[in-house]
Amino acid sequence: MSICKENLVGLSDQAVILMEAKIKKPDLFEILRIKSNLKQDVFEQTSSTFELLRKTMSQITEDYQNKYEGALPIIPFEFKDRGEFELELRFGGDVLIFMMHTNVFQFSRLHEVMKTSYIHQDPTLSYCGAIHIYNFLADSFKYNRTNDIGYLIGRLFVNREKHYFIEGKREIGMLYNNFATSVIGPETIRQIIESAMLYTINFDLLSPPYDQVKLVTVSEMQNSIDNMKITTGKRLGFRFQADNGEPKS
Predict the structure, then answer these.
(1) Within a 10 A sphere around the Cβ of 218, how many other Cβ atoms?
(2) pLDDT tens for each residue of 39-57
(3) Can you tell me the distance from the alpha carbon of 123 to that of 19, in angstroms, rounded to the nearest whole number?
(4) How far apart are CA 157 and CA 162, in angstroms?
(5) CA–CA separation, 244 and 235 (whole Å)
């Protein structure tokens, strides 16, 4: 069985090699080299995107502090660099944590991205790095409430061409998504951060159901209220998906 040359027009060299390897006897070492280089390219682009997130979060923090310098009451607004793959933005009573995964992923065959001509023309473009966005209560960290709940409110996928795709809740999921044409840049990064903040600000803390918190052990009561093992979360006891259906993309 052979590959029709016309079917390879427009494909990257990486895609051609991988497709040919499925039909004829594969060159194991060459497949390893091509696949590893592809994933390294994706990782580098995702890392570059994460660095842009780092700089933009620092700039947004500076913008807020400059605008409200000396204003009362003082509303916490702080950016914390938590390492190579983790960033924290704390504002008011909330915390956003951006985490970059060190591995490279491919979309499911059933995912809508896989149905686009952009991917059909070059399947290697479906390999992406992932950056997850989590929302926590600031008090959960302040009082070391290790049982408290955080929520994944969005995730950003970036491929080797620095094209991006976003899945998320409400404001985040409403961002314009066209994987074939959407390329990460400073304006896009700022929009993603501000959209995540807006969703978080509007994502209010609800009281958990009475039956869920009516029982407290003696040992929990003997500890200070800050260390009580009563789990706190914005939608604890409620279905998070009910806020706006399934995550948008």
Answers:
(1) 6
(2) 999 999 999 999 999 999 9
(3) 9
(4) 9
(5) 13
Domain count, the chain: 1
Widest pairwise Cα distance in the chain: 75
Inter-residue long-range contacts of 105-112, CB under 8 Å, 24+ positions, other chains counted: 105/129, 105/130, 105/157, 107/157, 112/249
> Which pLDDT value is given to residue 226?
53
The answer to whether 155 and 131 are in contact (CB under 8 A) is: yes
2 domain residue, yes or no: no
Residues, the chain: 249
Q: Range of 111's domain? A: 9-243
Kindly report, residue by residue over 177-235, the tens digit of the pLDDT: 789 999 999 999 999 999 999 999 998 877 777 887 677 777 766 665 555 555 666 66
* DSSP-assigned beta bridge partners for residue 151: 135
Residue 93 has pLDDT above 70, yes or no: yes
Tokens of 49: 């995107």
pTM here is 0.78
Mean pLDDT (the chain, rounded): 83
d(CA 70, CA 139) in angstroms, rounded, equals 24
Beta bridge partners of 88: 80, 97
- C-alpha span between 42 and 53 (Å, rounded): 17
Q: Flag whether 131 is in a domain.
A: yes
Q: How confident is the model at residue 36 (pLDDT cuts 50, 70, 90)?
A: very high
